[in-house]
Design a protein that fits this description.
homodimer; alpha/beta; 434 Repressor (Amino-terminal Domain); Rossmann fold; 3 domains; six-stranded mixed β-sheet; 12 helices; 12 strands; 18% strand; elongated; DNA-binding; transcription regulation (chains A, B)
Chain lengths: 326, 326
DNA sequence: GTAATTTATGTAAGCGCTTTCATTTGGGTT
DNA sequence: AACCCAAATGAAAGCGCTTACATAAATTAC
């Protein structure tokens, strides 16, 4: 920058202004400075800029997993949307480990970002402290519940589980089961399982079988199906915590000669692309993935542009996509 | 930090040392300082630290897409591995747009990261300039080719395409086709298509049909299948640029009553989890996804620990996974 | 033409750390 | 006890910018 200032024959301050707030500098100087800095290939040092200025153009976003297509999709969307406004995403991933989340949140906060976005509502005490003592807007996304730390944008997983149960009950299903991936770690899937259990029990007086799969991949869907059938042979409908598990179960059903939905009804969750393409096409529950990404970006941008904008706590709801497996 | 220094009754320098290089400070002072900073909840300001020190603990990684499970997997792996060494990933995503890549690279470079990792070998002139003028190690991953900018770790997509063609030719296939997603933008898929075309033509004197799909999702696999069959009805084998497309085609084949591999042979690419679970199970080509992530991390860490470590240019090769669709 | 504004530029004080260099302290040696 | 050397600590100089604040230049008002 010093170089640019010298060549352009102006002071450091003027260069900074020409680059940062072009309207504050006279047109002729501005063009000269821009020309010189381009010619010299000057690239401002963000770090210095951020130290001197108040904030970084960084938005910290923390998700449990990058390979989960929901979060990947939300992140991709947010990246693009924020980038257009000059913000840069700092992405963290903790693999459903709240201690790791704690460390990541602390690390992110130490860059004093413009905003912090975390996934879910379950955090350690320290995470909560770091989050609430950071000066920026904080949004907890994907889960809806009472009293978010600052803003909350998501939907109720419990309600999603209940929706599935109600749907099964309405179809006159007597014995149902729920298959969830890593129910011990993924509290969102656990909330769906619990909502399902409660509502199905309430509606039919039957306590549904809950089975935990070790991951969210297809193979596990197949083996979970076998386990369900082993433990509760008369099961006529299974709700899965993810479409991939459901599809895996469909493949397995195909192999063991079970017809769907005749012998067994299957309900997915996620409405991934694959759900529209299987034979038969998968009936599933769609979380508001795109709406979440958009709402988060919109809200954060609003807060950043008008700091007195109040926090929000949005429930975006889920939707049952009726296709052919139930 | 000033606060901590005052309370502990030492100078700023000592606090900094106690936290940064504990072995340089006497045990009793060290424990006192650590205790005080914990009690005060002191969180160092990374930005100031980086400005004063030489480098940030940031590693910039730029991929075309976050929703592509390869990149997502590599990123997840790299995040975990680097995190263990105290580095933090800065993830960028450009959607196969080299101009966007240019902007992202520039933005990342301005944080002067410890290393920069980009995907592929196709970059704009400016990207190349920024990359080579940045003081840190640069690795181009996923593609192998001559003379990387600095280090290169990947495999040859062209060779992967040739492998598919050779395999088909050996099976005695007369009329083959290749279906690739967004061949106009994804130069890796294009390289595979081109390798396939060249080798199949060379081996059988038959110019295979090349069809472009609009995205890498299942639905497109189905419609691409219809297009292939429309344009070249006698096609007996199709290679796809991705497993999802291949699976989509399998679903469609099922719908139109085509038996696989009897009527039509299908070869995927990626060896995603789903490939092991379809009926029949998908024969596919597996790129060295995990090996790439590991090799990148290992190499970068080496370079960072011993700056005189030479660059590398690794070809990790691909593997044909023989299953039931060919 | 001068005074009062407004606008454009320059000066210099940090931002919160790290690190060099100088100084002090605490053991060993003789 | 005097001396030397290594280890521990402190003082202070930046790191490369931004931004009050001060100053100069250009307008406008009278």
């Amino acid at each position: 920058m010093e170089e640019v200032a010298k060549v352009a024959g102006v002071s450091l301050a003027t260069v900074s202004r020409a680059l940062r707030t072009p309207e504050a500098v006279s047109p002729k100087l501005r063009t000269r400075i821009e020309e010189v800095s381009r010619r010299l290939g000057y690239a401002p040092n963000r770090i210095a800029g951020s130290l001197a200025g108040a904030r970084t153009p960084l938005i910290g976003v923390i998700v449990p997993s990058l390979t989960n297509s929901f979060f990947a999709g939300t992140l991709e969307q947010m990246t693009t949307l924020f980038e257009a406004k000059g913000y840069q995403l700092m992405i963290g991933q903790h693999g459903y480990d709240t201690d790791r989340e704690e460390r990541i949140v602390a690390a992110f906060a130490s860059w004093n970002p413009s905003a912090l976005v975390v996934t879910g509502r379950a955090h350690t005490r320290n995470t909560l402290n770091t989050l609430s003592s950071s000066a920026c807007p904080v949004v907890e996304m994907w889960d809806h519940g009472e009293r978010p730390l600052d803003s909350g944008i998501g939907f109720s997983n419990r309600a999603a589980g209940k929706l599935a149960a109600r749907f099964f009950a309405e179809q006159g299903i007597a014995k149902a089961a729920f298959v969830g991936a890593i129910l011990d770690k993924d509290d969102r899937a656990r909330a769906r399982a619990e909502g399902f259990r409660q509502e199905f029990l309430h509606l039919t007086r039957f306590e549904p079988l809950i089975v935990t799969a070790n991951n969210r991949e297809l193979g596990e869907g197949g083996s979970a199906l076998k386990r369900v059938l082993g433990q509760q042979p008369e099961t006529s409908a299974i709700a899965f915590s993810g479409d991939m598990l459901a599809v895996g179960a469909m493949f397995e059903a195909d192999r063991i000669g079970l017809s769907i939905p005749g012998d067994l009804k299957i309900l997915g969750y996620g409405d991934l692309d694959i759900a529209r393409n299987t034979n038969p096409r998968l009936t599933t529950i769609r979380p508001p993935h795109n709406a979440i990404g958009e709402a988060v970006v919109r809200h954060v941008l609003e807060r950043l542009e008008a700091p007195d904008t109040p926090s929000v706590n949005l429930d975006l709801g889920v939707k049952l996509i009726l296709r052919e497996t139930v």
